[in-house]
Design brief:
The complex is a heterodimer of chains A (471) and B (296). In chain A, a hairpin with a 2-residue loop joins strand 4 and strand 5. Chain A contains 18 helices and 11 strands. Chain A has 2 domains: 192 residues, D-Maltodextrin-Binding Protein, domain 2 (3-Layer(aba) Sandwich); 206 residues, Periplasmic binding protein-like II (D-Maltodextrin-Binding Protein, domain 2). By secondary structure, chain A is of the alpha/beta class. In chain A, 42% of the residues lie in helices and 13% in strands. Chain B has 296 residues and is mainly alpha-helical. Chain B has one domain: MetI-like (MetI-like fold), CATH 1.10.3720.10. Helices cover 74% and strands 0% of the residues of chain B. The longest helix of chain B is centred in the N-terminal third of the chain and has 34 residues. The chains are: A alpha/beta (471), B mainly alpha (296). The interface between A and B is large, with 57 and 51 residues.
C-alpha cells in the first residue's frame, strides 16, 4: 500500500478548525469592558452669565433621551422647543424610547451617552449602580441656578419637599425626578357617601369600618397581590408614622435591629390581623395590578393601596361618578411621632445628565427649562399627574383623584417621608416584598416577618460588594 | 487546484464563521471572563474578583431555590411531556387518517403561539376569582378544589409545569407521530397476529423503535426545563414567587443583572447554567448510545 497514491482532501477538518480558531482570536478581544479610556471630550462651556447661568455653548448639539411611557414625550419635546428658541444654533436630537435601560446601557459602557437621560420605566438602569460607576453628573450647579420663570428663586427652592433628597446619593444630587408620587389608600367617594362610610383616621377605626363593610357584602380591601410591593407601602407608611423619621433612617441606614423596631412590628401585626380577619378580598394574592384595580373599580372591594398614578391608570376602567380619592394611611397609635396627615411621597421619572455627556451644561440647561413652572403646569394639565415643581397645579381645575392628592400634599406640609432602601438596595426590597406577601397570606407571623427582613438587611450590610449610602 | 479550493472554502466559510464568533462565541467567552469580575453593567471597566461570584452562588438562598425548582422541572416536565406525547401519538396511529391529521393540527396550535402569549393566557386561566379553571371547578360542583393556583406555594410550581407541558406536548406529538409512521406497517401487523394487545404493541414495538427520537426529545425538553424563564417571568406572583416557590435560574440571572446591576455575578449564574445544560445533553445522549436497533 502506498499512502501517497491515496487522494487526501487537502483542507482537512482539522486544518479548517485550526484556521477558524486563529481567525476568531482577534474578534474575541473586543470585549464589553474594553472601553476604559477616559478621555473626556466634553465642551468646556461658555461663560456663565445671568441669562446663561450654566454656561451653555450656544452651538453645542444636545441629545435628549426620554422614556415614552404613560406620559408620552410631548412634554419633553416642548421643553426642547424652548431650548431651541433660546439657542437657535444648537442641533437637538430627541429620542422617545420605551426601553431606556436597554438602549442606554451600551452607550454608558462605551462612554458615549447622550446629554440628558430620563431613566424611567421597566428595565431602567439601576441608579445606585450608575452612581457607583461614576456615570452621572453632580447637578449642584443646576440646583443653585436661578429658576427660569420664578424670579428670585433657585431651582432647588422651586421643588416639592423630598425631590432633591430623592436624587441625592452619597451627598451628591445626581438625578432630578419630574413627577411627584404620593402613596395612600384609595376609595370611591360616591360609594362611601352612598353607604354612609367615613374614611378612618386611626387603625382601630379602620378595623371597625372593615367589619361594617364586610357585613355589607363588600370586601374591605383588595391589593395587587401579584406584586406584593403594593401592600408594602401602607404597611411601611404606618410604621413610619409611628416611629417617625428616626425609624425610616434606621431602616435606610441598615442599622442592626432596624426591622425589629416597634413601629414596624406593630404595623406588620396590623396587616396580619387585617388578613386574619378575612378583610382582604379572597384571591387578591394572585391578582395583577390591573385585575385587582378593576375589581376595586367594580366596587367589589372598598380600599386599595396605590400611588397617585392610580387615577390616570384607571381611566376608562373606573365607571362614571366613581370619584376616586386618596386617603392617608390611618395612624396606628395615639402616640405616633408623625401626624396622620403625613404621607409617603417620592418623586419619580428620573432625569439625569451622564458624567460622560458631550454637552453637560446644555443637559442641565435643558433640565432647568423642563423644571420651570410653565413646563410643569403644562405637564400636569396634560397628564393629570402632580409634577415635582411646587405650585404647578395652582389655579388648575383638577379631577377628584388628583385634587385629593394635591390636598394631601398640602395638608402634609413638610411631614412627608420616603424610604430610600428600595432604590439603594434592590435585593433588600425584594426580600421585603416577599416577606410581606407571605405575611398577608398568613404563612408567616409578624415576628417572622421582621426576623426574615432583618436577616436580609444584615446580609446587605455585610456585603462588601454593595455600595452603601446613608441619610 | 488546491489553491482554488482553499479560496472557495474560505469564501464560503469565513462570513458564517465571523458571524458565529462575534455573536455566539465571543459573548460566551466574555461571560466566562465577566463571571470572574464585579462588572456592574454600566461601567467601562471591571475588577477581577476571582472565584468570589461562584462562592456566593452557594450561599444565595434564592439561587438555591431556583436550582431546586429547575431540578424539579427537569424531572417532571420531560417525563410528563414525553409520556403524554407518546400516548397521543400512538393513539393517532390507530385512529382514522383524517381524524388523526385534524388532531395533529390541533395539538400543534400551542406551538404557534409565542411563549409570552401562552403565559398571559394561562395567567387568566389561573385567576382565582374569574379564571377558567376555578370557574370550571365551581360549575362542576367541585368548588372545594378551587385554589389560588399561582399564589399558593404548594401549587404555583405545578401550575407552571402544567403550562410548560401544555405548550410543548403538541410539538412532540407531531415528532413522535412522524417517527411512528417510519416504522414498517408489517411489524404492527405481525404483533397483531401474534395476539399482542395495545399496551404490548406499544411497549414492545413502538417504543423501542422510536427510542432515538425520544432521546432527542429528552435533551430538548431538558434544556427547556432548565430555562422556563418566560413563563415564570410573565405568569407568576412576584415574579418567581410566592416567596421563591417558582424561582428559576434564568429569572435569578435576569434580576441580578438588570435589577441589581451585578452583571459579574449574573454571568456566574449563566456559566453555571451553561455547564448544567451541557452535562445534561452529554448524559442524555451517552446513556442511549448502547443498544441501537437496526431495521433490516
Amino acid at each position: 500500500m502506498n499512502p501517497d497514491t491515496q487522494v487526501r482532501p487537502y483542507p482537512t477538518r482539522r486544518t479548517l478548525l485550526k484556521t477558524a480558531a486563529v481567525l476568531s482570536v482577534p474578534a474575541l478581544g473586543g470585549c464589553v469592558t474594553a472601553g476604559k479610556s477616559d478621555d473626556k471630550v466634553a465642551d468646556a462651556g461658555a461663560e456663565k452669565t445671568a441669562e446663561n447661568p450654566l454656561g451653555v455653548k450656544a452651538d453645542s448639539p444636545l441629545e435628549v433621551v426620554v422614556f415614552k411611557g404613560g406620559y408620552g414625550d410631548e412634554y419633553a419635546v416642548k421643553a426642547e422647543a424652548t431650548y431651541q428658541q433660546k439657542y437657535p444654533q444648537a442641533k437637538i436630537d430627541h429620542k422617545g424610547l420605551q426601553k431606556v435601560g436597554e438602549a442606554m446601557q451600551p452607550r454608558f459602557v462605551a462612554g458615549t451617552p447622550p446629554d440628558v437621560v430620563d431613566n424611567t420605566g421597566a428595565g431602567r438602569l439601576d441608579i445606585a449602580t450608575l452612581v457607583g460607576a461614576s456615570q452621572v453628573t453632580d447637578l449642584a450647579d443646576l440646583l443653585d441656578a436661578p429658576s427660569l420663570d420664578q424670579p428670585g428663586r433657585k431651582v432647588r427652592d422651586t421643588l416639592l419637599p423630598g425631590v432633591v433628597d430623592d436624587g441625592t446619593f452619597a451627598g451628591k444630587t445626581v438625578a432630578l425626578n419630574f413627577t411627584y408620587t404620593v402613596w395612600g389608600l384609595w376609595f370611591s367617594k360616591s360609594l362611601f357617601a352612598e353607604r354612609g362610610w367615613t374614611y378612618p383616621k386611626t387603625w382601630d377605626e379602620m378595623v371597625a369600618l372593615c367589619g361594617e363593610i364586610k357585613k355589607a357584602g363588600v370586601a374591605p380591601w383588595t391589593y395587587q397581590g401579584k406584586y406584593p410591593e403594593y401592600i408594602n407601602d401602607p404597611l411601611l407608611s404606618m410604621a413610619a408614622k409611628t416611629g417617625g423619621a428616626d425609624l425610616v433612617k434606621a431602616v435606610d441606614n441598615l442599622q442592626p435591629g432596624a426591622w425589629k423596631q416597634d413601629g414596624l412590628v406593630q404595623a406588620a401585626t396590623a396587616f396580619a390581623e387585617l388578613a386574619g380577619q378575612g378583610y382582604l378580598m379572597s384571591g387578591s394574592e394572585a391578582l395583577s395590578h390591573t385585575e385587582a384595580q378593576a375589581a376595586w373599580c367594580q366596587k367589589k372591594a372598598a380600599f386599595i393601596p396605590c400611588g397617585s398614578w392610580l387615577e390616570s391608570e384607571q381611566k376608562g376602567v373606573a365607571p362614571a361618578g366613581f370619584d376616586m380619592v386618596m386617603g392617608t394611611v390611618p395612624a396606628r397609635s395615639s402616640s405616633d411621632k408623625l401626624p396622620v396627615t403625613a404621607v409617603q411621597a417620592a418623586s419619580s421619572e428620573s432625569f439625569l445628565v451622564p458624567a460622560k455627556a458631550k454637552n453637560p451644561a446644555g443637559g442641565q440647561e435643558y433640565l432647568r427649562i423642563l423644571f420651570s413652572k410653565q413646563s410643569a403646569t403644562a405637564f400636569a394639565e396634560a397628564n393629570s399627574t402632580l409634577p415635582a415643581v411646587a405650585g404647578a397645579t395652582d389655579g388648575l381645575t383638577l379631577s377628584s383623584g388628583l385634587g385629593s392628592v394635591r390636598d394631601a400634599v398640602t395638608a402634609a406640609g413638610s411631614d412627608t417621608f420616603t424610604y430610600r432602601f428600595r432604590t439603594w438596595y434592590a435585593p433588600l426590597a425584594k426580600a421585603v416584598d416577599d416577606a410581606t406577601g407571605e405575611l398577608v397570606n398568613k404563612r408567616i407571623s409578624p415576628a417572622d416577618w421582621s426576623t426574615r427582613i432583618q436577616k436580609a438587611a444584615d446580609a446587605v450590610a455585610k456585603d462588601s460588594t454593595v455600595t452603601k449610602f446613608t441619610r | 487546484m488546491r489553491h482554488g479550493r482553499w479560496r472557495f472554502l474560505l469564501g464560503a466559510l469565513v462570513p458564517a464563521l465571523v458571524l458565529h464568533v462575534v455573536f455566539v462565541l465571543s459573548p460566551y467567552a466574555q461571560a466566562f471572563w465577566l463571571s470572574l469580575t464585579d462588572w456592574t453593567g454600566v461601567a467601562g471597566e471591571a475588577q477581577f474578583v476571582g472565584a468570589d461570584n461562584y462562592v456566593r452562588l452557594g450561599g444565595d438562598s434564592l439561587f438555591l431555590d431556583a436550582v431546586r425548582n429547575n431540578a424539579l422541572l427537569l424531572v417532571v416536565v420531560p417525563l410528563v411531556t414525553i409520556a403524554v406525547g407518546l400516548f397521543l401519538a400512538s393513539m393517532l396511529r390507530t385512529s382514522s387518517p383524517r381524524l388523526g391529521q385534524g388532531y395533529r393540527i390541533v395539538y400543534f396550535f400551542p406551538q404557534l403561539l409565542s411563549l409570552v402569549v401562552i403565559a398571559v393566557l394561562w395567567g387568566f386561566v389561573y385567576n382565582p376569582n374569574t379564571g377558567l379553571l376555578n370557574s370550571g371547578l365551581r360549575a362542576l360542583g367541585l368548588g372545594g378544589l378551587a385554589h389560588s393556583w399561582l399564589a399558593e406555594p404548594a401549587f404555583a410550581l405545578m401550575a407552571v409545569m402544567a403550562v410548560l407541558v401544555w405548550s410543548s406536548v403538541g410539538f412532540y406529538v407531531v415528532l413522535f407521530s412522524a417517527a411512528i409512521e417510519g416504522i414498517p406497517r408489517e411489524l404492527f401487523e405481525a404483533a397483531l397476529l401474534d395476539g399482542a394487545g395495545k399496551w404490548a404493541t406499544f411497549s414492545r414495538v413502538t417504543l423501542p423503535l422510536v427510542r432515538e427520537t425520544v432521546q432527542v426529545a429528552f435533551v430538548y425538553l431538558g434544556i427547556a426545563a432548565l430555562d422556563a424563564f418566560a413563563v415564570v417571568q410573565v405568569m407568576t406572583v412576584g415574579p418567581g414567587g410566592p416567596d421563591g416557590a417558582t424561582e428559576v435560574i434564568g429569572l435569578s440571572l435576569y434580576r441580578t443583572a438588570f435589577t441589581y446591576g451585578k452583571f459579574g455575578y449574573a454571568s456566574a449564574m449563566g456559566v453555571a447554567l451553561f455547564f448544567a445544560t451541557l452535562t445534561l445533553a452529554v448524559l442524555a445522549l451517552r446513556s442511549g448510545r448502547r443498544e441501537r436497533l437496526e431495521l433490516a
